[in-house]
Amino acid sequence: xxxxxETSFVKQLQENQNLIHKICRLYTNSEDAHKDxxxxxxxxxxxxxxxxxxxxxFTTWAYRVGxxxxxxxxxxxxxxxxxxxxxxxxxxxxxxxxxxxEEEHIKLLYQAVQQLNxxxxxxxxxxxxxxxxxxxxxxxGISEVNARVKMNRIKGKLKNILNP
Length: 164
Fold this sequence. Notes:
Blueprint: H1 3-27, H2 31-48, H3 58-80, H4 100-113, H5 118-128, H6 133-140, H7 144-162
């Protein structure tokens, strides 16, 4: 690959790496698994980058590659290995900035979301990232109406999980 292509990829990855970290958090339960998934998504993005034509935004394309990679690896691992429980002690946040109540709410939300199927997780993730339904639909390969209907059903599921 040309150095210009490599420079472009590195720049795009640096600017958008938070979305990859969020995907990793959604599909993993440990720091090691998170790092492994981040690395695998980065590798898949690098392999696919020469074919990225710019028809959609880089983030939309990266969401698609990242979610597909996470879902593929998640399905393989659930057949063979169980994941380790997430440990809140991994967070390195100053005491005065740390909000235990907020952290507990976030933990409960992630536990609820992890009970959803792969497509539902991806849809919730993108919804929480304030993506509009047209971008969600494009990324997941479904119609915009289908994305809206699915999201309404997921909201009901999450309410039942969080408030049985």
